[in-house]
């Protein structure tokens, strides 16, 4: 498979890079929006994503993987794994994944991904947005950190984006066949710090606690709650630390 032709559009200010790329989802795969600042940055579960100018990598990437709906979580996992490798290559920082796709260092969030699926005729396309805290430690009410706080290094957003796109190229061909997808899934499961942890899964209307057992083929989290395995496709996960009070 030929490497993707990346077309990076850089904005000093934009509402949201995800919104911009979603509005152009009919264009060829490889469109990337990069912004210094977002006035209406969006996070998962309808939250806002706010960061000071030039303090973060804020970008959104258009991918057209040619997959079925139940396989699309793997595309998001691919970008999360690529971001993890890019951070390690540039800064030496070792990050883990927290289900579904946060990048964490010792439990503190350093990056988050927001994936949105767009139908284009019969084809499904995926816009994957990523925010990486480079010099900003995140809002005070969230357990978050930055690459600067962890390593003392100030990384330029564009430098991280270039390595991220290289890492996506390394993995992109894996989506095309079952063997590649299995290898990607194994890389994802290996990087997920959530598995084997006691977790609290918080959804808008319900919170449950149990032991994270694994993820299924669609990337859903399997949690043993008092002996019954429950499956979660959305939600926030808290890794319950030893000694922390249970529900
Ligand atoms: C999350 O952890 O809730 C996901 C955060 C995703 C934020 C990024 S920043 C670039 C892109 N544009 C957006 O509006 N959101 C994503």
Task: Furnish the topology, listing elements before pairings.
Elements (H helix, E strand, L loop, with lengths): L6 E5 L5 H7 L7 E5 L20 E8 L9 H19 L4 E3 L3 E4 L2 E13 L2 E11 L13 H5 L5 H16 L5 H14 L6 E5 L4 E9 L5 E5 L2 E5 L3 E4 L8
Parallel strand pairs: 1-2
Antiparallel strand pairs: 2-3, 3-7, 4-5, 5-6, 6-7, 8-9, 8-12, 9-10, 10-11
Helix pairs in contact: 2-4, 2-5
The chain binds biotin (BTN).
The site of biotin (BTN) has 20 residues, from helix 1, strand 3, strand 6 and strand 7.
Task: Tell me what you see in this structure.
The chain has 247 residues and is an alpha+beta fold. It contains five helices and twelve strands. It has helices spanning 17-23, 73-91, 147-151, 157-172, 178-191, and strands at 7-11, 31-35, 56-63, 96-98, 102-105, 108-120, 123-133, 198-202, 207-215, 221-225, 228-232, 236-239. A hairpin with a 2-residue loop joins strand 5 and strand 6 (108-120). Helix 2 packs across helix 4 (157-172). The longest helix has 19 residues, at 73-91. It is globular. Bound molecules: biotin (BTN). Biotin binds at residues 16-18, 38, 41-44, 47, 49, 58-60, 102, 112-114, 129-131.
């Amino acid at each position: 498979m030929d490497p993707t032709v990346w077309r990076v559009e850089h904005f000093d200010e934009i509402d949201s890079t995800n919104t911009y790329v979603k509005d152009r989802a009919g264009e060829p795969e490889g469109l990337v929006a990069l912004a210094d600042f977002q006035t209406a940055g969006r996070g998962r579960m309808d939250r806002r994503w706010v960061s000071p100018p030039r303090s973060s990598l804020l970008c959104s990437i258009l991918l057209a993987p040619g997959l079925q709906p139940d396989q699309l979580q793997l595309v998001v996992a691919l970008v999360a794994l690529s971001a993890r490798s890019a951070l390690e290559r540039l800064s030496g920082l070792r990050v883990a994944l927290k289900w579904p796709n946060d990048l964490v260092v010792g439990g503190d969030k350093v990056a988050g991904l927001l994936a949105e699926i767009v139908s284009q005729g019969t084809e499904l396309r995926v816009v994957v947005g990523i925010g990486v805290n480079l010099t900003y430690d995140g809002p005070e009410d969230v357990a978050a950190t930055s690459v600067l706080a962890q390593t003392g290094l100030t990384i330029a957003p564009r430098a991280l984006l270039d390595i991220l796109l290289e890492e996506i190229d390394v993995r992109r061909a894996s989506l095309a066949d079952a063997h590649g997808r299995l290898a990607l899934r194994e890389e994802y499961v290996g990087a997920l710090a959530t598995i084997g942890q006691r977790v609290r899964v918080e959804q808008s209307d319900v919170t449950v606690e149990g032991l994270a057992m694994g993820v299924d083929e669609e990337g859903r989290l399997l949690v043993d709650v008092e002996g019954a395995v429950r499956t979660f496709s959305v939600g926030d996960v808290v890794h319950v630390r030893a000694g922390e009070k249970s529900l």
